[in-house]
From TrEMBL:
It comes from the Bacteria. InterPro entries: Nucleotide-diphossugar_trans (IPR029044), Trfase_1_rSAM/seldom-assoc (IPR018641). This is DUF2064 domain-containing protein. Pfam families: DUF2064.
Amino acid sequence: MSSTAPTPYAAGADPAAAPRMLVVAKAPVAGRVKTRLGTDIGMDLAAEIAAASLLDTLVACTDAVGPDRCHLSLDGELLDAVHGERIRRHLHGWQVTPQVGDGFDERLVRAHADVAAAGPGPVVQVGMDTPQVTPDLLLGAAAPLADHHAVLGPAEDGGWWVLALRDPLAAAALRGVPMSTPTTHDDTRAALEAAGLAVATTAVLRDIDTVADADAVVALVPGGRFAAAWSPEVAS
């Protein structure tokens, strides 16, 4: 990444150059999100943590490019979610579409296709497991698209936390890639390169799946909704 922090795109920026943000997430419903974490802290509290993580992510995306260039591909209903009304308020101006597909790889392909159908420009896609993400990190992931087709950000657990694509339809290369495995990053990069795409790398981040993950992220980023939700009574 460049040592010079990128700046948020101004309103009226060239739509062929300014990225869109895509968040692929589950509605934070107890028992459906952060289940691995929930085995240690309880499913209700895990859903609270997931809601806070999603809210921090939505804010970072909005601050990076503005709500009119932000998309959410949602699995589930916010009506049933923890802090559903609060999340809906933060989605004002966003385009929200339901996730479609039998596997997560298919859902990712469809989510990117929905962004492509909404208009021109590259896309930066993240999930809801990295509340430490910032506008600078998101725009930094988009910057190498000037001379690469794709940018992949490794996660410490072997997955990836961000995928930026010059053409969202190039996400078709993800079809058939096993997700949520210790080799997902490497498998995804191999699939993109096999499709003829030049792939750059951006910053490594830590996904939050365990108590140790949450403690580590809060220590790095003590502000924000996630840190507030991760109270001293919860943290190890």
